[in-house]
Amino acid sequence: MHSDKIRKKFLSFFKERDHKIVESSSLIPEDGSVLFTTAGMQQFKPFYVKGDSPYGKRACSSQKSFRTSDIEEVGDQDHLTFFEMLGNFSFGDYFKKESIKWAREFLIDELNFDEEKLVYTYFEGNDEIPEDETAKNILLDSGIKEDRIYSLGRDENFWGPTGTEGPCGPTVEIHYVLKEEGCGPGCDPSCDCDKFIEIWNLVFNQFYMDSSGNLEPLKHQGIDTGMGLERLAMIVQKKPHVFETDLFVPLKEKINELIEGEASQRSKRIIADHVKGSVFLISEGVRPSNTDRGYILRRLLRRAMRHSKLLELPGNSLEKIAEEVFNIYDGIYLKKDDRPQVFSVIKEERGKFEKALDKGLKEFEKMVEENFLDGKKAFHLYSTYGFPLEMIKELCEERDIEFTEEGFEKAKKEHKEASRKGVEEKFGGLSEDPENEELKLHTATHLLHESLRKVLGSHVKQEGSDINPERLRFDFSHPKPMTEEEIRKVEELVNEKIEENLEKKVEEMPYDEAIEKGALTFFEKKKYPDPVKVYSFLNSEGNPFSKELCGGPHVENTGHLGRFEIKKEKSSSKGVRRIKAVLK
Question: How far apart are CA 137 and CA 141, in angstroms?
């Protein structure tokens, strides 16, 4: 059964049971406490608390998901970064009985699973939360033999929340028996002996956990289930591991086509997974960088590049493999129009890393003495050749070389401190490249600041700012939430000034003179150098729209910026609001 048919069967099954089919949300979640969407329930998270779902009380989806915790595990038989999560959800409607009943019906009646190969686990309870006897009794009443039901602890059978706080609760997990022999007496689904593989997690959202770990009963109990399509396809298609399913075979065949002779299966799997994950991240607007999501993307691409070098693949192999990713998911999650952009990003990152990789590997060989690599030398590989820490660890593990991360972190801290002092001395520190995303976003903060003052009033003052290649975060003084109308007006004003192609003007003058000329400041006078730099953005008549003390640098004119969009406005602290915005 093709994976596309499995996906459609799942959605159809729950649609027949009055569930609204909901389109997959973005891999970039609204929840700012997490980097990526890691589960199907994330887009539904508010509805478990408020109970006002726009989809009604029942929903189902096939959600594209990404988990960073498994990056270093990729290469074995079933760990992935990008995967699809099939899930059904109840917001204050049905609960444990129906959830367990329908899960069994789908697996046994729709997918023809051998019932004797299914085993179940439930929450055994602890000092804080009692044993889930209700779930156990439902399983027994379903006719499941007691020797196929296991009670496990909180680590195994209690899920959530996603992020720092949110809905959570005990679970029933459904596992498939892959082989008869286990690791001996007491073997259960929590073992790592590969006898069992988890296929479906049924979460009973009964509690809300706050950021301190305190649990409170939810007013609206709900169901949140998750089943990985790749693992499900592995079992349905009777394959030994996920990389033999139709979701990976085209990638594997392309890699084999590019290889001469035998090659490491582990390297093939790493390349296949990491290219797939990279394609999805790039298509969602993520770009390689040294922070946040961009760093994860860079790790994936550079790890894939190193393993493609081990297999002696041609230089443009990753782009060719990426083409197969589009073929697999075309019309499901990916669009053909995204191909040129994705291939361009991969090619650009490859160009940055290829020469550094060769030089860095040679340097690595020189550094290794008596099977030991100290942290300071490892940091040199990181800072000079762009080797992610995880790649350095992997190199050491492959060669059985001892590596102490402590020395690395110390060197990194010293480097960061030295860099900070250098930035303070220069009162700036961004590249002058007009295509640098951080440079453009830095300029956008000036336009945003002045636009906020014009729409909300002159009391608005910058209280903080943070920029990475993907977005800007801007904190400002304001006593109440902005209305939708105010947000729209600020957006329109910023974009109006971008379209006017305002020209940059830089002046150097004493601090007091800058204040007299109306330049905005954010700190006490003593924190500024003398003289100060004043950055203005002028219209065609030479009049400034914005004028601020700043270390710069900025783009030459605002026409470089593209389209400005406010993604979120919320409270930062008492009397301070926070805006997150992007350039498109």
Answer: 6
Q: Kindly report each contact of residues 155-158 with a partner whose C-beta sits within 8 Å and lies 24 or more positions away, as own/partner.
A: 156/121, 156/189, 156/190, 157/121, 157/122, 157/123, 157/124, 157/132, 158/123, 158/129
- Nearest-angstrom CA–CA distance, 435 and 441: 11
Contacts of 269 (CB under 8 A, 6+ apart): 74, 75, 76, 243
Q: Which tokens go with 415?
A: 């480097």
Q: What are the residues facing 395 on neighbouring strands? A: none
User: In the 8-state DSSP scheme, what is residue 106?
Assistant: I
Flag whether pLDDT at 419 surpasses 80: no
Q: What order do you get walking across the sheet with 564-573 strand by strand?
A: 462-468, 471-477, 576-583, 564-573
* Beta strand 402-403 pairing with 372-373: parallel
C-beta contacts of 337-342 below 8 A and 24+ residues apart: 338/282, 338/283, 341/282, 341/283, 342/279, 342/282, 342/283
Find how far residue 135's CA is from the centre of its chain: 33
The three-state DSSP-derived secondary structure of 249-286 is HHHHHHHHHHCCCCCCHHHHHHHHHHHHHHHHHHHCCC
In whole angstroms, what is the distance from residue 161 CA to residue 153 CA?
Answer: 16
Joined together, the tokens standing for residue 202 give 């049924």
Rounded to an integer, what distance in angstroms lies between the CA atom of residue 509 and that of residue 531?
5
Residue 446 tokens read as 């000036």
Asked if 5 and 86 touch (Cβ cutoff 8 Å), the reply is no
Whether omega before 553 lies within 30 degrees of 0, making that bond cis, reads yes
- Number of helices (H) and strands (E), helices first, in the chain? 17, 18
| pLDDT above 90: residue 1 | yes
Residues whose CB falls within 8 Å of the CB of residue 21, separated by 6 or more in sequence, listed in order: 11, 14, 15, 59, 60, 61
CA distance 258 to 275: 15
Cα–Cα distance for residue pair 372/402, rounded to 1 Å = 5
The contacts of residue 529 (CB under 8 Å, 6+ apart) are 427
Q: What is the pLDDT of residue 424?
A: 43
**Residue 265 burial (CB count, 10 A):** 14
d(CA 181, CA 268): 29
Tens of pLDDT, residue by residue over 320-350, are: 999 999 999 998 999 988 999 999 999 989 9
SS3 297: helix
pLDDT digit string, tens, across residues 115-129? 999 999 999 999 889
Q: How much is the average pLDDT of 222-229?
A: 96
Phi, psi values for residue 91, rounded to 5°: -110, 90
Give the strand pairing for 196-209 and 166-177: antiparallel
| Bridge partners for 66 per DSSP | 82
Distance, in Å, from the CA atom of 186 to the CA atom of 338, rounded to the nearest integer, reads 51
What are the residues whose beta carbons fall under 8 Å from the beta carbon of 405, sequence distance 6 or more? 375, 389, 393
Predicted TM-score of the model (pTM)? 0.70
Residue 298, amino acid: R
